[in-house]
Amino acid sequence: MLSNEDKIKIKQEIDKKVSNLTCPMCQNKKFVMADGYFNNTMQPDLKSFSIGGQGIPTIGIICNNCGFVSQHAVGVLGLLNNDKNKKDEPGK
Ligand SMILES: [Zn+2]
Fold first, then answer.
1. How does pLDDT run across 30-42, given as a tens digit for each residue?
2. What distance in angstroms lies between residue 69's CA and the mean position of ligand 1's atoms?
3. Domain limits at 32?
């Protein structure tokens, strides 16, 4: 799903900002990247569920020992480049 170019860019951005990447659960230092983005859809209230509203797109970095998933907002990593994506990013 993700291109090699996107994976390299994501890895570079995370490496720039997180030194010594370590799993907070098991202290393992090896992770794999999810092969696609997550979109955490924001809900206006807890009594209903709406699909297609604003969300926070993230990439998941998964501990290859215990499976802990660390999600990183791609907007903060500077990876939302086009106008369509910026429109969907909260606070933009
Ligand atoms: Zn772990």
1. 999 999 999 999 9
2. 8
3. 4-43+55-80
Would 87 be classed as within a structural domain? no
- Would you call 7 helix, strand, or coil by DSSP? helix
Within a domain: residue 92? no
Residue 50 falls within a domain, yes or no?
Answer: no
Contact call for residues 35 and 66 (beta carbons, < 8 A): no
- Summarize pLDDT for 71-90 with one digit per residue, the tens: 999 999 999 875 444 445 45
* Integer Cα distance of 40 and 17 in angstroms: 22
Q: How far is the CA of 64 from the centre of ligand 1 (A)?
A: 7
Residue 37: give its domain's CATH number: 2.20.25
- Cα separation of 76 and 59, whole Å? 11
How far does residue 73's CA lie from ligand 1's centre (Å)?
Answer: 20
Is 0.90 topped by the overall pTM?
no
Q: What residues flank ion ligand 1 with Cβ within 5 A?
A: 23, 25-26, 28, 63, 65-66, 68
Q: Tell me, in angstroms, the distance from the centre of ligand 1 to residue 39's CA.
A: 22
